[in-house]
Amino acid sequence: MENQIPTKLKDFRNFLYLVWKHLALPRPTQVQYDIANFIQSKEKRIIINAFRGVGKSWITSAYVCHQLLLNPQLNILVVSASKNRADDFSTFTLRLINEIEVLAHLKPRDDQRQSKVSFDVKPARASHAPSVKSLGITGQLTGSRSDLVIADDVESANNSATMGMRDKLSEQVKEFESILKPQGRIIFLGTMQNEMSLYNQLPARGYKQRIWTARYPNEKQVKNFGDILAPLIRNTWSIDEQGKPTDPERFDDEDLKKRQLSYGASGFNLQFMLDTSISDANKYPLSLSDLVVMSLNPKTAPEKVIWASSPELKHEELPCVGLHSDAFYRPMQIQGDWMEYQGSVLAIDPSGRGDNETSYVCAKMLNGNVFITDAGGLVGGYTDKTLQSIATIAKQQEVNLILVEENYGGGMFTKLLLPFVTKTYPVTIEEIRHQEAKEKRIIDTLEPLMQQHRLIIDSNVVHKDYNSANEMYTLEKALRYQLFYQMSRISNVRGSLAIDDRLDVLSMACRYWVDQLAKDQHTAQAQRREEALRDELDSFLDTQVFNKRPSNRWM
């Protein structure tokens, strides 16, 4: 019973020392002690993100033993990404109970459960729920009742690669709340897989997150981590300390260098520095910072727009839903006169069925730059209201052409749209059929435009994109429907986005102008070749050789 436990052992850090001694390990390091202290805090919802190899699973397993030592009537659930990993956790925990003397009174009786799937401790009263139970995240959580839920690496590369996977995982962990007893606790521990990691979402649900890095972070990383960086590291950090090992007893500088070579820069930053920014920059090729955002006129645009990413050019007032390093920038300079656009198209991606919306983008061309003057999404499928809205937008933007993605009913949407366009704003409608994989097609179209800073967005489009999504959808869904969220999160992985309608139609509109530019370049090249041949011929005709009298020798 708790009152029979030595006072010193009530502090989990002292108990951890005892466990490490039993396992013939060196005494716990300062980082391990710090993790242990955070685990035993009074916080009901916590996230432990620590570098690979620090021993967080072993520490948490020891904590389960400590909790059962203090109160044998507890019901504890261990959940991992895979059933095998969860079973390994509970097996190790049972081993500690069977081997450590101070836990001897907790050994299960012969008539109690004592498998790797679930086991009881001896003093536990009869219950449907075992003292410790292990499950994979895809297992049947419903029906379990727990005082403590340990989520040990529930997020893995295999279950978080795409938006759909991440959404599914996010919904699965919500189940923890329904099985938790009053005053119960939930502890997440793991390593983040990307910027959109489940662990980065949980603080919004009331979780307290803490990060332990393998090296002292640099200034930028310290700023990005903010309050979630472990006080042990944050309070001892200095310019002179950055880059040095935080836990040299565990991993010294030489060891970390070898691991960095093995993992690569991106992998090391993810697994050992818990910094997703480098990984994300490599993984997500479309950066919002490459856009030029300014107030646009629906009829004219400047001849030349010059981009820069200086801090004073940052749009502080615009809602930015990109990655941590993303921001919107106004142009550094505008040169020349404001001229009429060379052309204007309205691209439409019909919704068809399901949760998709009918998305649209108005893209205009001038001097090799693409200007986005309007964009958004319409709910209601192919209703008269939606069709009329499209016709009205075409009129307001004075477009020369409407492009419709042929993905619904074999061209039925175009047939339905035509009467509304004919009545409101007669304009040509063309259908577009895509052959390439969606992710590749979108990235291949937009990345060159954005890296050359030739994609220019009306600032009103940014506001409209953000506000319309929040008005049309629930808080949880709204983010995924936004154009600029989709833009910053797409990758070459198939299915990387669960919803991509607004981004897809943007790429379709831009692709039209990219193709037109290519045609114009080919035409210009042909004209230049023709002119060069004419000049050469004229030069030849003017030569003295040609003007000599012909010889009679061959007559």
In a nutshell, what does this entry contain?
The protein is of the alpha/beta class. It has 18 helices and 16 strands. Residues 548-555 have low confidence and may be disordered.
Give an overview in words.
41% of the residues lie in helices and 18% in strands. With 555 residues, the chain is an alpha/beta fold. It folds into 3 domains: 211 residues, 3-Layer(aba) Sandwich (Rossmann fold); 229 residues, 2-Layer Sandwich (Nucleotidyltransferase, domain 5); 25 residues. It has a 7-stranded mixed sheet. A 7-stranded mixed sheet has the order 8-16-13-12-11-14-15, sandwiched between helices. It starts with 11 loop residues before the first helix and ends in an 8-residue tail after the last helix.
SSE layout:
Layout: H1 12-22, H2 30-39, E1 45-50, H3 56-70, E2 76-80, H4 83-99, E3 118-119, E4 132-136, E5 146-152, H5 163-179, E6 180-190, H6 198-201, E7 208-212, H7 219-225, H8 231-234, H9 253-271, H10 277-283, E8 292-294, E9 300-306, E10 333-340, E11 343-349, E12 358-366, E13 369-378, H11 384-397, E14 401-405, H12 412-424, E15 428-432, H13 438-451, E16 455-458, H14 459-472, H15 475-481, H16 483-489, H17 501-541, H18 544-547
Parallel strand pairs: 1-6, 1-7, 2-4, 2-5, 5-6, 8-16, 11-14, 13-16, 14-15
Antiparallel strand pairs: 3-4, 9-10, 11-12, 12-13
Helix pairs in contact: 1-3, 2-3, 3-4, 9-10, 11-12, 13-17, 14-15
In the sheet with the most strands, the strands line up as 3-4-2-5-6-1-7
Rg, nearest Å? 32 Å
CATH topology of the largest domain: Nucleotidyltransferase, domain 5
Low-confidence stretches: 548-555
